[in-house]
């Protein structure tokens, strides 16, 4: 019965858009929130996912949540974005499955316009950036330049290279040289390797601003900047990010933007493109898939320049956070059911970090490896940083929320996300200082 419906759904799919073409609006799109209750529901969702991947362009119907072969409780709520022409079929198949669902975003286009609205409070300081609205890449670059110009003794900028479309990929360093000329441990943070996950760079620039602008007046911050070097790469995937910010293009773009030979679909998933166990799990070889791993490791310049910069500082870097959204997970390595030998330490520190985060506003995070709490996936940043970068505390935080707004998180949540995430970052920073910091005589 349910298979007939699923087949009907797939047969009705039209090829009106492929990934890579312009998707200028999401008028009439709805986002459904499904709550799987039985193992059969989970099977249904997994089957639906593979059928959709084969047959329906991701900008018509896309399962936003990661599912995997887990218990229904572990899977939790699942968001599915559906274009108007597929809604009747989809809800029919949900009903046939008896899977509970509700419409969580009734009009995706409206939600996107609402999310992008400009705040009335214009920021004149900090290079025109604020944390009451989301900003596009030029504003983030001007914020970076403002920090370098106004805090020259604290902040330096390195252009790591250019993206496929020619945008600068920029790395910031925040730190004071240690008095005795010794090398300090370092903390690396990056964001927006997935273009549509706007809260990731918004949260990261919030914390960056705090480290720099509060240095002069706050002893805690002074300690953190004097004892650590901070490397910050605010937007790993600027081309994809710019595409999500262009009002006539695609807010829900995920990948890079490089042209693929023999395909109309652009880009690859840069969080599957690293060469630690590349294409082993949770990655795709089809260019039109949103988890296309690229034709070979480091096919994407963004990945290549990141790893070169990282390896050049490898002996210094003791902690690495690659921010994503959404789900409220603090992911530990690795993505293929294996664990590093020091996983107990990594998890203990992650639990302390998450407890500090939760203490601010009660926001709850789950701690575990991708295989434990969602699905297997290899070729991503935090696995690479652990295995090849040899960074002890390597994590992927999946920021707010758990599936009310998904990727389209209202800008009112930027500052709370910044405040609570900073608490977690401080716990990890303190751990790195205690473990690797210069010993005091
Ligand atoms: C200094 O910064 C720390 C860390 O962000 C914060 O907890 C503390 O409240 C700040 N102190 C003052 C006086 O603002
Ligand atoms: C949007 O993209 C088009 C085509 O690439 C470009 O001409 C335009 O300047 C972009 N708009 C913004 C606001 O970046």
From TrEMBL:
Give the family, as the similarity comment puts it: Belongs to the peptidase M14 family.
GO molecular function per UniProt: metallocarboxypeptidase activity; zinc ion binding
Q: Where is the signal peptide?
A: 1-20
Stored Pfam families: Peptidase_M14, Propep_M14
- Keywords for the protein's UniProt record, in alphabetical order: Carboxypeptidase, Disulfide bond, Hydrolase, Metal-binding, Metalloprotease, Protease, Signal, Zinc
Task: Cite the active-site annotation.
Answer: 398 (proton donor/acceptor)
Gene3D superfamilies attached to this UniProt entry: Metallocarboxypeptidase-like, Zn peptidases
CDD domains named in the record: M14_CP_A-B_like (cd03860)
InterPro entries in alphabetical order: CARBOXYPEPT_ZN_1, M14A-like_propep, M14A_act_pep, Peptidase_M14
- Domain of life of the organism encoding this protein: Eukaryota
Would you tell me the Gene Ontology cellular component terms? extracellular space
Q: Name one GO biological process term.
A: proteolysis
The Peptidase M14 domain is annotated at: 133-432
Please list the cofactors this protein needs: Zn(2+)
Report what the protein is called: Peptidase M14 domain-containing protein
Asked whether the UniProt record includes Hydrolase among its keywords, one would answer yes
């Amino acid at each position: 019965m349910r298979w007939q419906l699923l087949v009907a759904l797939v047969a009705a799919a039209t090829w009106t858009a492929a990934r890579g073409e312009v998707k200028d609006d999401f008028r009439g799109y709805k986002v459904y929130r499904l709550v799987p209750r039985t193992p059969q529901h989970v099977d249904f969702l997994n089957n639906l996912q593979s059928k959709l991947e084969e047959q329906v362009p991701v900008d018509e119907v896309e399962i936003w949540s990661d599912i995997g072969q887990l218990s229904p409780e572990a899977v939790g709520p699942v968001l599915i974005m559906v274009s108007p022409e597929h809604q009747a079929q989809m809800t029919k198949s949900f009903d046939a499955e008896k899977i509970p669902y509700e419409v969580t975003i009734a009009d995706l286009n409206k939600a996107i316009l609402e999310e992008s609205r400009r705040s009335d409070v214009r920021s004149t300081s900090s290079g025109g950036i604020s944390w009451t609205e989301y900003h596009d890449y030029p504003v983030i670059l001007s914020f970076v330049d403002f920090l370098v110009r106004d805090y020259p003794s604290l902040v330096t900028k390195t252009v790591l290279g250019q993206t496929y479309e020619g945008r600068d990929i920029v790395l910031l360093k925040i730190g004071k040289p240690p008095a005795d000329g010794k090398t300090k441990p370092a903390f690396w943070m990056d964001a927006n390797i997935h273009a549509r996950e706007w809260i990731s760079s918004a949260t990261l620039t919030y914390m960056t601003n705090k480290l720099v602008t509060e240095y002069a007046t706050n002893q805690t911050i002074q300690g953190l900047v004097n004892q650590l070097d901070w490397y910050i790469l605010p937007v790993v995937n600027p081309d994809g990010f710019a595409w999500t910010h262009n009002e006539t293009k695609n807010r829900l773009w995920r990948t890079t933007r490089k042209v693929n030979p023999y395909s109309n679909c652009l880009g690859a998933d840069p969080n599957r493109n690293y060469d630690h166990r590349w294409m082993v799990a949770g990655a795709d070889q089809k260019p039109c898939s949103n988890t296309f791993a690229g034709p070979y490791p480091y096919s994407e310049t963004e990945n290549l320049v990141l790893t070169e910069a990282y390896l050049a500082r490898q002996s210094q870097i003791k902690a690495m956070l690659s921010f994503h959204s959404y789900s409220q997970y603090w992911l530990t390595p690795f993505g293929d059911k294996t664990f590093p030998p020091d996983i107990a330490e990594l998890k203990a520190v992650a639990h302390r970090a998450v407890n500090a985060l939760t203490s601010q506003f009660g926001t709850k995070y789950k701690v575990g490896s991708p295989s434990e709490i969602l699905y297997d996936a290899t070729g991503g940043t935090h696995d690479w940083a652990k295995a090849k970068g040899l960074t002890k505390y390597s994590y992927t935080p999946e920021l707010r929320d758990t599936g009310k707004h998904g990727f389209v998180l209202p800008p009112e949540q930027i500052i709370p996300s910044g405040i609570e995430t900073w608490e977690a970052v401080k716990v990890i920073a303190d751990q790195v200082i205690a473990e690797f910091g210069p010993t005091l005589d």
